[in-house]
C-alpha cells in the first residue's frame, strides 16, 4: 500500500512569495462615490509554507493509483500583507462601516472578513496596524490618508501568489448624490480642485461658489433636477484639464474663467420645477445579482431612482408577453411572476433573473433649476466689425446632417453586474428614418455606474445636442463688448442672412492681432439640452462567482459491483449529489478521496455530475427474471434527478441499470407521478447475479449511469475496510470544501466471487447466445470403465437452480414441433438386422 503512504521527502514548491501586484511608481487612486478598483501590494513579510491539503485545488498528479502524492504532502502558503487601495478617508455607508463592500479575488467574490482581510479607511491621522507594532515594530507605519487592506497570515493557496484582487470601495462623498449611492457632481468637482491631500491645487477662493452650488442655475441644481450623480475612479495619471473636460461633457456643462473666478454653467435651457413629475417606462432584463461566497441565493434588484425621486409604481410586465407581474409589497417575492418594491427599488424572484421586463413608474425632480437665458446684447449690423473684405461680417457654418450620428453609445459601468463595462445607446428614430442609422464614436463614461436610468439619459443628452445644435456663427466686435463671457446669450440681427433677433450662445472668445474680439457662437435651440427621459434596453451580461462554496453531498453511493458487470475486474463504484435538489445550483461535483487507515487520504476519482438518487416510496416484493407486474416507486427529490424509460430488451441488458439496496436491476417504463416521484415498471430483476430480494419503503435507490465514478480495486484491498470523503465543488469548479470538514463514509469490501459467466447469465432467466463452438476439444477423459468400482468421490454440490434442456422441457409440457429437417443425414447405423440374435448386453443403469 505504498501508494497511500505519506511522501516524507516532499518539499514545498515555492520558497518565496510570487509578487505580481507590487509596483512602487503607481499613483494612489482617487475614488469618489462607489466604484471598483484594484489594490496594490505595498508590504509583505513572514512568507511560509504549511504542509497539508488546504482544500484549494481540484485534481492532482495522477491520483492514488497513478503515482500521485498523498494529500498530506500538499502545501498551503501564507504571508503577512498590506495592500493599498486609494486616497482616504473611505465613507462608512450603511452597514459597511469599514468603507468597502465586495472583494473579488481571481474569479471568486467575498466580503473582507471571509478571506481574512481588514480595512483601514485612510483617515488623517490614522492609527498604526497593531499587528505591525507587535510583530514588526520597525515597519510600523500608519500610512496617513491612504485606505488599505491588511491580512495577517493571509492564505495564498497552493500557488504562493497574491492573486488578482479588486475591491468595491465607498470613497469620499459616497451617498451624496441624488440617488443616495453615488456622489454629487458639484461636490466632486470642488473636491477634485481644492482638496489639500490629493486635489489639483486650485484655490478655493477662485471658484464661483454661486455658479457651483447656490444659484438657481448652478451646476448642483441642474444635476439634482436632472438626476445626475457620478462615481469617478482615477486610477492612472491623466491631465487634470482632461479629466474635468470629460466630466463636464457628461454633465452637459461648460467651465468659464471670468473676472478671476472659475464658473460652471450648464447648457440646460429648460426650467425644471422641484416636484415636477414624469411618468416613464424602463425596459430591461432582471439583473442576476453578485452571488456572495456565502452561497445564499439573492433576488434580482433594480433601482430605477432614489427614494426621494420616487412617486408611484405603475406596474411591471414581461416584455415578451405583456403579462403583468403581481405586486406583493415590500417583500422578496417567493414565486416567479411576483415583485416587491421599496420606494424606487424593485425586487424580483431569482427564477425571473435574466427575463426582459418593463417597469412603469412616476418620478419627480428633487430640486428646481432655472436657466439664465437673459440676452445680454442685441447685436445688429452696426455692431459687427467689417474688415472691408468681400464677405459678410457674420459668417455661418452649418454641419452636414449626413455627417452627424443618429445613434450615440456611451460606455458605462454596470454596478449590478460587478462593474462590467456596458454600452448604453441613445437613438433618434425620426432622424434615423430620414437620414439613416449612423453610429457615433463610443464615449467612455466610467464615472457612471447606473446603466438603467442615468446612462441612457446622458447618452440622449449628448446625442440631441450633436444633432440639433449644428449651426455656428462667427463675427468680430470691438473692445466695448469686452464684458461678454462664454455661455452668455446674445441676439443677432443680420439682413443679409435674414436673421431677426436670433438668439445664440457665446461659446468662445479670442483676441486677434488687431485688438478685435472674435466670437464663436452656437444657435440656441431651446429644449434639446434638457431631453426627456428616453431609455433603451441594456445588456445584462452575467459574471459568475467562482468562489460560491458548494453544498455537502447527500449520503453517497459506494458499492462493489459483481465482477459479472465489470468484465471480471474487481471495482468500486461511487456517486454523489448535493444536498437540496442537487445542490440548489451550487453543486457541480466532488473529488473522491480514499484511505485505508482513516488518516491519510488519496484522490481516487472526480465526479462531474450529480447521481440520480433517492428512496423507495413503497415496498417492492422479491422477484426474479422479467417482472411485468410489480411497481418500483421512487422519489428523487434529494438529488433533483429525472428518469426516462427504454425498451424491454435494453432494460434486460442493463440499459437502465439501477441499484436498490444490493440488488441491480433495470426498468422499461418511467412514469412521472408528481414532482420528482416516479413509478418504474417492466423490471429486469437480479442483474449481475445479484439477489432479487424484497425491498422496504425508504430503501435507497440510485440510477447507475455516466455520473458514477469507477476505479479498480487492488487485490490487497479486498476484504478491507475503506474510508471515503466526498469533497464538493460548485458548478464552476470552485468553492471546494475544506477536506477536514467532509464527513467520513466507511465501506467494507469483500473478496469477489468468480461465478461461471454462463451460470450467472442463466441465473437471470434471460436467454444468451454464446455463438458457435469452433474449436474441437483438446482433452477428454471417460473416467474409466463403468464396471470398475470408484476409488474416490467428489461432491460437486447441489444445483441451486436446475437447468432443464429446452427440448426436454417442451416435451414434458406436451408436444413440440422442431420444424423441417433441412440437412441430409451424413452418418447412420441400424445396428444390424432385427432378426439377428443379441450378442452383447450392457446395463446402462437406473435412471434416477
Q: What labels describe this entry?
A:
six-stranded antiparallel barrel; six-stranded mixed β-sheet; disordered N terminus; 30% strand; 10% helix; mainly beta; 848 residues
Q: How would you describe what is shown here?
A:
The relative contact order is 0.09. Helices cover 10% and strands 30% of the residues. Strands 20-26-27-28-25-21 form a six-stranded mixed β-sheet, with no helix packed on it. Strands 33-35-38-37-36-39 form a six-stranded antiparallel barrel. A four-stranded antiparallel β-sheet has the order 2-9-5-6, with no helix packed on it. By secondary structure, the protein is mainly beta. It is built from ten helices and 42 strands. A hairpin with a 5-residue loop joins strand 22 and strand 23 (420-427). The protein starts with 29 loop residues before the first strand and ends in a 35-residue tail after the last helix.
Q: What is the number of helices?
A: 10
Task: Sketch the major β-sheet.
Answer: 6 strands, mixed
Could you say which overall geometry the principal axes of the C-alpha atoms support? elongated
Roughly what fraction of the amino acids lie in strands? Answer: 25-35%
- The helical percent reads under 10%
Query: What gyration radius follows from the Cα positions, in whole Å?
Result: 42 Å
The strands making up the biggest β-sheet line up spatially as: 20-26-27-28-25-21
Mean pLDDT: 83
Distance between the termini: 54 Å
The structure class reads mainly beta
Question: Stretches where pLDDT falls below 50 for ≥5 residues?
Answer: 1-9, 53-73
Total strand segments: 42
Amino acid at each position: 500500500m505504498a501508494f497511500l503512504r505519506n511522501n516524507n521527502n516532499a518539499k514545498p514548491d515555492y520558497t518565496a512569495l510570487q509578487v505580481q501586484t507590487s509596483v512602487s511608481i503607481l499613483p494612489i487612486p482617487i475614488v469618489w462615490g462607489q466604484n471598483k478598483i484594484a489594490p496594490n501590494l505595498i508590504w509583505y513579510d513572514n512568507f511560509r509554507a504549511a504542509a497539508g491539503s488546504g482544500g484549494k485545488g481540484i485534481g492532482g498528479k495522477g491520483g492514488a493509483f497513478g503515482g500521485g502524492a498523498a494529500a498530506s504532502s500538499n502545501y498551503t502558503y501564507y504571508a503577512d500583507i498590506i495592500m493599498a487601495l486609494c486616497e482616504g478617508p473611505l465613507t462608512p455607508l450603511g452597514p459597511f462601516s469599514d468603507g468597502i463592500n465586495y472583494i473579488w479575488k481571481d474569479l471568486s467574490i467575498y466580503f473582507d472578513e471571509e478571506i481574512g482581510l481588514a480595512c483601514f479607511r485612510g483617515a488623517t491621522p490614522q492609527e498604526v496596524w497593531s499587528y505591525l507594532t507587535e510583530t514588526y515594530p520597525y515597519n510600523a507605519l500608519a500610512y496617513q490618508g491612504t485606505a488599505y487592506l491588511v491580512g495577517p497570515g493571509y492564505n495564498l493557496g497552493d500557488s504562493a501568489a497574491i492573486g488578482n484582487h479588486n475591491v468595491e470601495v465607498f470613497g469620499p462623498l459616497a451617498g451624496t448624490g441624488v440617488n443616495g449611492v453615488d456622489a454629487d457632481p458639484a461636490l466632486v468637482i470642488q473636491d477634485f480642485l481644492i482638496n489639500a491631500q490629493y486635489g489639483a491645487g486650485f484655490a478655493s477662493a477662485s471658484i464661483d461658489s454661486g455658479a457651483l452650488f447656490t444659484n438657481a442655475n448652478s451646476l448642483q441644481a441642474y444635476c439634482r433636477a436632472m438626476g445626475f450623480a457620478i462615481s469617478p475612479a482615477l486610477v492612472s495619471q491623466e491631465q487634470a484639464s482632461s479629466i474635468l473636460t470629460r466630466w463636464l461633457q457628461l454633465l452637459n456643462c461648460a467651465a468659464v474663467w471670468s473676472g478671476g473666478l472659475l464658473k460652471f454653467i450648464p447648457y440646460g435651457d429648460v426650467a425644471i420645477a422641484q416636484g415636477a413629475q414624469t411618468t416613464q417606462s424602463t425596459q430591461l432584463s432582471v439583473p442576476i445579482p453578485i452571488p456572495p461566497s456565502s452561497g445564499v441565493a439573492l433576488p434580482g434588484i433594480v433601482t430605477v431612482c432614489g427614494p426621494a425621486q420616487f412617486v408611484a409604481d405603475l406596474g411591471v410586465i414581461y416584455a415578451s408577453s405583456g403579462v403583468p407581474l403581481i405586486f406583493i409589497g415590500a417583500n422578496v417575492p417567493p414565486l416567479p411572476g411576483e415583485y416587491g418594491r421599496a420606494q424606487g427599488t424593485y425586487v424580483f424572484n431569482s427564477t425571473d433573473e435574466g427575463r426582459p421586463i418593463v417597469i412603469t413608474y412616476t418620478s419627480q425632480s428633487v430640486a428646481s433649476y432655472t436657466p439664465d437665458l437673459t440676452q445680454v446684447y442685441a447685436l445688429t449690423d452696426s455692431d459687427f466689425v467689417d474688415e472691408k473684405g468681400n464677405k459678410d461680417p457674420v459668417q455661418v457654418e452649418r454641419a452636414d446632417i449626413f455627417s452627424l450620428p443618429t445613434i450615440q453609445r456611451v460606455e458605462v459601468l454596470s454596478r449590478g453586474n460587478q462593474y462590467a463595462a456596458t454600452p448604453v445607446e441613445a437613438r433618434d428614430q425620426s432622424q434615423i428614418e430620414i437620414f439613416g442609422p449612423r453610429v457615433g464614436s463610443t464615449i467612455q463614461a466610467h464615472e457612471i455606474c447606473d446603466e438603467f436610468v442615468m446612462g441612457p439619459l446622458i447618452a440622449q443628452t449628448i446625442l440631441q445636442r450633436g444633432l440639433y445644435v449644428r449651426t455656428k456663427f462667427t463675427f468680430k466686435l470691438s473692445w466695448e463688448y469686452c464684458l461678454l463671457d462664454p455661455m452668455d446669450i446674445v441676439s443677432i440681427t443680420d439682413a443679409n442672412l435674414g436673421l431677426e433677433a436670433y438668439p445664440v450662445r457665446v461659446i468662445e472668445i479670442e483676441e486677434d492681432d488687431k485688438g478685435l474680439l472674435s466670437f464663436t457662437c452656437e444657435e440656441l435651440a431651446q429644449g434639446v439640452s434638457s431631453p426627456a427621459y428616453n431609455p433603451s434596453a441594456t445588456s445584462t451580461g452575467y459574471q459568475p462567482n467562482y468562489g460560491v462554496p458548494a453544498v455537502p453531498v447527500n449520503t453517497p453511493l459506494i458499492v462493489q459491483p459483481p465482477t459479472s458487470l465489470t468484465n471480471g475486474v474487481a471495482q468500486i463504484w461511487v456517486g454523489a449529489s448535493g444536498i437540496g435538489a442537487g445542490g440548489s445550483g451550487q453543486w457541480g461535483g466532488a473529488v473522491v478521496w480514499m484511505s485505508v487507515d482513516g488518516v491519510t487520504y488519496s484522490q481516487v476519482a472526480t465526479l462531474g455530475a450529480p447521481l440520480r438518487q433517492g428512496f423507495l416510496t413503497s415496498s417492492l416484493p422479491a422477484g426474479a427474471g422479467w417482472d411485468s407486474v410489480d411497481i418500483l416507486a421512487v422519489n428523487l427529490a434529494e438529488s433533483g434527478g429525472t428518469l426516462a424509460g427504454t425498451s424491454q430488451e435494453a432494460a434486460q441488458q442493463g440499459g437502465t441499470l439501477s441499484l436498490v439496496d444490493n440488488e441491480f436491476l433495470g426498468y422499461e417504463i418511467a412514469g412521472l407521478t408528481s414532482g420528482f416521484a416516479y413509478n418504474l415498471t417492466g423490471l429486469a430483476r437480479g442483474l449481475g447475479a445479484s439477489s432479487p430480494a424484497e425491498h422496504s419503503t425508504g430503501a435507497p435507490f440510485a440510477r447507475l449511469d455516466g455520473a458514477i465514478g469507477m476505479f479498480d480495486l487492488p487485490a490487497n484491498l479486498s476484504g478491507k475496510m475503506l474510508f471515503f470523503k466526498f469533497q464538493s465543488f460548485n458548478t464552476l469548479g470552485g468553492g471546494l470544501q475544506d477536506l477536514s470538514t467532509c464527513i467520513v463514509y466507511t465501506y467494507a469490501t469483500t473478496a469477489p466471487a468468480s461465478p461461471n459467466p454462463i451460470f450467472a447469465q442463466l441465473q437471470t432467466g434471460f436467454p444468451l447466445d454464446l455463438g458457435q463452438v469452433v474449436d474441437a476439444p483438446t482433452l477428454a477423459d471417460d473416467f474409466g470403465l463403468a464396471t470398475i468400482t470408484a476409488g474416490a468421490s467428489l461432491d460437486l454440490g447441489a444445483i441451486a437452480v436446475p437447468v432443464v434442456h429446452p427440448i426436454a422441457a417442451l416435451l414434458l409440457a406436451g408436444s413440440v414441433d422442431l420444424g423441417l429437417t433441412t440437412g441430409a443425414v451424413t452418418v447412420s447405423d441400424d445396428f444390424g438386422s432385427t432378426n439377428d440374435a443379441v450378442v452383447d448386453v450392457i446395463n446402462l443403469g437406473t435412471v434416477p
